[in-house]
Amino acid sequence: MKALVTGATGFIGSKLVTKLVDRGVSVTCLVRSGNIRNPGVKTVNGDLTYPDFVLPDEKYDVVYHLAAIWPGEKDKKKVRTINYDGSVNLFTLIKEKAKFLVYVSGLGVFGDPENIVDENSPLQPHTDYAKTRLEAQKFLESNCKENAIEFSVAYLGDVYGNDGWFKSIMVDRLKNGSFKLPGGGEYYRSFIHVNDTVSALVAIAEKNAINQSLVVTDSNPVIFKDFVNFVCDELGVKHPRSVPALLAKAVLGGDFVKLLTTSIKTSNKKIATICELAYPSYKEGVRSVIAELKS
Predict the structure, then answer these.
(1) Using one digit for the tens of pLDDT, what is the confidence trace for 89-122?
(2) Distance from CA of residue 87 to its chain's centroid?
(3) Hey, what domains does the chain have and what are their CATH numbers?
(4) Cβ count near 295 (within 10 Å)
(5) Are strands 222-223 and 188-189 parallel, antiparallel or unpaired?
(6) pLDDT digits (tens, 9 = 90+) for 213-238
């Protein structure tokens, strides 16, 4: 199998690439600069916002599109350029090369749901960031259909692991006492360990889960405050104080805080039929991550 991965140097993308290579997949990575130090990987340097580069002249059994700007970006023009225009440019590059496109999105496209979210829940984003992500998804889905390319979308929960936001925004700040709970933390979130995330993405291709939407979270939605306090207990540090959501928005950006403080519970029954999670609950996953960080 041959795969193309965008966002291949990111927190999730880098682990996905390693997983694919370990499973014998021939992987091409699209990165803005540098090379990926893995002998089983081909690297193409290019920026999807400036698509003046050429992909290798070969067919890809699956393209994983993870490249996106983080939700805390306050420049709305930059968000659109990277998340939407970048997706449009990617499709132009792969429309004659791809058999199957997996678009990796987030739970923000479900907005502020009243019920437990699953694959049949309405898509009604309530932030500009998530609206742009959904617009990109609809563009890709429509154009894939017109060009006989299979398409699926994975809606990821809050992905945690021994890097990324979990370490830099939560663990490191909990340790130095600078982390605060936006809005008191009294809202549900749905998490997923990064290793289970990449296992699910690989399973979508290997199990030929085409033309589907899949919610990728663990089996245990949790009140955010309880999640943070559990992390504190595992680290052996004090529980954090709260900060009004309005103040948090001034620092972190309105869209990011609105996404974070929106209560969302999910059902992962569909993805669980094709992928067995190593960490079905945040408690097992967090313990594993903290043990890694301590070692």
Answers:
(1) 999 999 999 999 999 999 999 999 999 999 999 9
(2) 15
(3) 2-159+191-216 (3.40.50.720), 164-187+221-266+278-294 (3.90.25)
(4) 6
(5) antiparallel
(6) 999 999 999 999 999 999 999 999 99
